[in-house]
Amino acid sequence: MASTIIFYCLAAIILICALLAVTTKRIMRAATYLLFVLFGTAGLYFLMGYTFLGAVQVMVYAGGVVVLYIFALMLTGRKDVKDNEKASIAKKMAAVCASLGAAAILLFVMLTHKFINDGGLLSAPAEPTGEQATSITQIGQMMVDAGHNGYLLPFEAVSVLLLACIVGGLLIARKR
Amino acid sequence: MNISIYCFLIVSALMLAIGIYGFLTRRNTLAILISVELILNAADLNFAAFNRLLFPAGQEGYFFTLFSVAISAAETAIAIAVMINIYRNLKNNFVENLDSMKW
């Protein structure tokens, strides 16, 4: 019962803050609302029992990406150029139609589809037990395992990607 | 307590729709990037929910979300480097000014 209430609170926070993040006039506020959306999503991961994933979400997204946004906003903000975020009515209507159409199609497909074991209920205890449990030790071993259950190749690919990202970011943003 | 997978799917579908709306109406490139983050976040939530509620014995969705978070952090860093470079050249960040690839 308690988890149901927590779920609905988190869902309301996520949706309201997401709506505010795309409609607010000031970009700094949009970044702040994005932070709350990311915290809410981390809360949903914690609710599912994926504690490590929630911690990664908080550290990388809320701690890294949003700080990067704030710094970029402060670097590119100018007093004399105001945040002229007003789109024309026709453009807004078209965007509303596009997003509502996308939502309608997605919800129709998802809600009419018959999932295995009736969609499954997230039942108490929220922490997966037994062989379903994903401990930190298990995650670490799977991350560097080259066998059937291992994720060594994507792990190394991500490390190369991050190195390329560092070099590319320095190359693009440096002063000439 | 019983939270169906449909609840998670509705939340992520609405988050995706809101992200699409922001992507289409915003003019500042940083605000567009914020909308892209919303869309990516909705996809991540879907992966985790499918893994936890439909295949709790597997770990595929879990690791996909983990790698997706890392990749979106890299994407954000590169995109912000590009935007700072654009700002240095054009003195603002609005998409309607980005109509040529010339220096």
CATH superfamily grouping of the domain at 1-77 in chain A: NADH-ubiquinone/plastoquinone oxidoreductase chain 6, subunit NuoJ
Helix- and strand-based class of chain A? mainly alpha
Number of domains of chain B: 1
CATH topology of the domain at 1-77 in chain A: Four Helix Bundle (Hemerythrin (Met), subunit A)
Protein model, in words:
Helices cover 70% and strands 1% of the residues of chain A. Chain A has helices at residues 2-23, 27-47, 51-76, 89-112, 136-143, 152-173; one strand at 121-122. Chain A starts with a helix and ends with a helix. With 176 residues, chain A is mainly α. Helix content of chain B is 76%, strand content 2%. At the A-B interface, helix 1, helix 2, helix 3, helix 4 and strand 1 of A face strand 1, helix 1, helix 2 and helix 3 of B.
Keywords:
heterodimer, A: 176 residues, mainly alpha, Four Helix Bundle (Hemerythrin (Met), subunit A), 6 helices, 1% strand, globular, B: 103 residues, Helix Hairpins, 3 helices, 2% strand
Please give the structural blueprint.
The complex is a heterodimer of chains A (176) and B (103).
Chain A: H1 2-23, H2 27-47, H3 51-76, H4 89-112, E1 121-122, H5 136-143, H6 152-173
Helix pairs in contact in A: 1-2, 2-3
Chain B: E1 3-4, H1 5-25, H2 29-54, H3 60-90
Task: Please outline what is shown here.
By secondary structure, chain A is mainly α. Chain A has helices at 2-23, 27-47, 51-76, 89-112, 136-143, 152-173; one strand at residues 121-122. Chain A is globular.
